[in-house]
Specification:
alpha+beta
């Protein structure tokens, strides 16, 4: 609790001075509830009422357990930037205490729509949360709500908050632009950006560079998953001239990855690279990028029903989303690798000793 208070105690309390419930205690209850599978503010209040005796071993609870309305109001009013800053501060301290190595390898950027987090009549445009995912640690490094649905701008601001030395930032074609490349390089990282027809001049020159070097080194992998055989072939060519021609910061090479699945047509993807990675390394990087889908987005929906979350007012969606990612990071860091995340959350709700064990790993 002391470590949690150190990281979250500086968040400005948006309520009036006569608010009864301590803000940090409320956030701590919300986190514990999320570790037990709570999916919303009603669940948090129910968890607090059921576990009040346990909570009083760690908290004062001068005015008892907050109600559902109190939790909802706090998360609606809480500054999401301050909450996200506290999240990153906590993750840095948590990683140090749990002896988790600093981020290295692939850092994947991607957005996820909060399917039911929309105002009445705006179901066509749900809010989008952009996350930076550490593929090696399988943890969320940072996240940010895309204001007005502008995922590209949110991803750029997110990168500017991270230390990327020793990391390779991967992203889809939406984020393949000069400002993102510059931000990654300034933060000490490399990049591997997918390139599509939304950048026609870059795509044309990248394909020309690959065609001009027919003897470029290649690497191939073959595997079977989901009852499908897939072969992947990567080709990497140097293209330093493109950095000058297109004013693209740090651009050093281009790459092509061909994927064949059974009798399906071959899928060809093109990438811009800040370093001429070995083809085998590029295949690893490209595959690691997609772990954000299975390791984060799929888990949020299956374990915490994020797609079904109906909190949609003010800052509520962004703050509750950060809380869900924090809970998954803590559960994933627990050393019991044989137990799935879903079962860890269930067990935390059933077994107070296991919940305490999860909390101890926060130190």
């Amino acid at each position: 609790m002391d470590r949690f208070h150190e990281c979250f105690g500086d968040i400005p309390d948006p309520r009036a001075d006569n608010a009864q419930h301590d803000l940090v205690e409320m956030l701590f209850i919300a986190l514990l509830a999320s570790l037990c599978g709570a999916r919303g503010c009603s669940d948090m209040a129910e968890f607090g009422a059921a576990k009040e005796a346990l909570l009083r071993q760690m908290l004062t609870l001068r005015h008892g357990v907050p109600s559902h309305d109190t939790f909802s109001r706090v998360f609606r009013l809480l500054d999401p930037v301050a909450f996200e800053t506290a999240f990153r501060r906590f993750m840095a301290a948590f990683a140090e205490g749990a002896r988790i190595a600093r981020p290295r390898g692939v850092v994947a950027l991607d957005g996820k729509a909060l399917r039911h987090a929309y105002e009445r009549g705006a179901s066509h445009m749900p809010q989008v949360m952009v996350s930076a995912w550490g593929a090696a640690t399988r943890m969320t490094l940072a996240s940010m709500l895309a204001a007005d649905g502008n995922e590209a701008a949110a991803a750029l601001r997110l990168v500017e908050l991270l230390q990327l030395k020793g990391c390779v930032v991967t992203a889809d074609a939406l984020h393949c632009h000069r400002a993102m490349a510059k931000a990654v390089r300034e933060r000490g990282g490399d990049y591997a950006f997918a390139l599509k027809a939304n950048q026609p001049a870059l795509l044309r020159d990248a394909e020309a560079a690959l065609a001009a070097e027919p003897t470029a080194a290649t690497a191939q992998t073959a595997g079977r998953a989901h009852d499908r055989d897939e072969v992947r072939i990567a080709t990497v060519s140097a293209a330093p001239h493109m950095a000058v021609a297109h004013d693209f910061p740090g651009l050093a090479a281009v790459a092509r990855v061909e994927s064949r699945r059974g009798d399906e047509p071959t899928v060809v993807r093109t990438y811009l690279l800040s370093r001429r990675f070995a083809p085998a390394r590029l295949l690893d990087i490209v595959r690691a990028h997609w772990d954000i889908e299975n390791g984060l987005h799929w888990t949020l929906d299956v374990s915490l029903d994020e797609d079904g979350a109906r909190n949609r007012k003010d800052n509520g969606p962004a703050n509750l989303d950060v809380l869900r990612r924090l809970a998954l990071n803590i559960a994933r860091a627990h050393p019991d690798a044989r137990t799935s995340l879903r079962r860890k959350l269930l067990r935390a709700g059933w077994d107070d000793a296991f919940l305490f064990d999860l909390i101890r790993h926060m130190r």
